[in-house]
Amino acid sequence: MTRTSARHLRPTVVGAGLVALDVVLNDIEDDEPKYLAGGTCGNVLTVLSFLGWNARPIARLRDDLPAEWIHEDLQCCGVDTSLLTATRDGSTPIIIERIRERSDGQRYHSYSLRCPCCGSYLPGYKSIRGKDAYSLTQELHGYQVFFFDRVSRGTLNLATHSLERGALVVFEPSGVGDPRLFREAWNLAHVVKYSNDRLRDMADLNIKSSVRNSLFLEIETLGASGLRYRSRLDGASHTRWNTLDAVPSPSFRDAAGSGDWCTAGVLNKLARGGLAGFRKVNSTRLKDALRYGQALSAWNCSYESARGGMYEASRPQFDRQIRALLSGKTIRIAVEKADPLAEHLPKLCPNCDELQRKTRSHAS
Predict the structure, then answer these.
(1) In this structure, what DSSP letter does residue 126 have?
(2) Span 99-113, pLDDT tens digits
(3) What is the pTM of this model?
(4) What is the CATH number of the domain that holds 319?
């Protein structure tokens, strides 16, 4: 079987939202910075590619060095980057992740949108334009899942198109933004997943009391406490919450991206048949899929950065370790230091570049 024909046999996920360059700074071990493709949409689709999917992210990047690194990293991970644009009027988001240690020795991470060198804001997210979304609807076909994490008119047009084509629509918001568009996104989705600590303001919108004919599964992650979910699958009542404790991590290094691994794990188990297959899921399969997603989250915490394990473990090793975690066994994960890209941080910040140009000009 050729590589092209094998790709056509794989389920396909199309995603629109945050695709960014993650700059990982480890203040504990004083490592060199790591430059990796990230963002919620970027991570979820890349993990699904690792799990055997054909993944096609949509993003409006700028024609710059960070975008080149994103393309390079995604392509190395088997992601189809044909729907990523890089133009002068686009923007390549850059996110700084710092890994630190508390006084009690516990590791934690934080995110920043400011350059650690000059303090100015780094480039942020730009949504796809309405006209570009319309063009995409004319060529997108044969995909089982549409995933999105940012809301705009163009993204909602793609979600509506996907709904009409029988794809499973998955919404994973990080915040509310425009309340009107947020409500529309919620009512278009079959699956909504959100973090308890990121969307407390969602309660003010009174969304949960509205009638949602399309929503089949709602997942709220609770950090170290696990998650809770409710569904209308298998005749269940959507009003009843069910709780699952977290799967313990073999060894904790960094929790970044763990929610993205959980999302990808659940979709990998339940969404390969699109909406039609998803609607046939019973309560046992649903619980098993959620548990699988939690195991992926726990495994990811053993590595640094949002997808660090993908660069250090083979797929057979990954499968064996996940099976062991699900069976309650203790496993040992050896971590090697990854080789960072040999570039300096200021080259990624347009303000730093401007400062350097002014400094050189003044010196001459």
Answers:
(1) -
(2) 887 877 788 778 888
(3) 0.89
(4) 3.40.1190.20
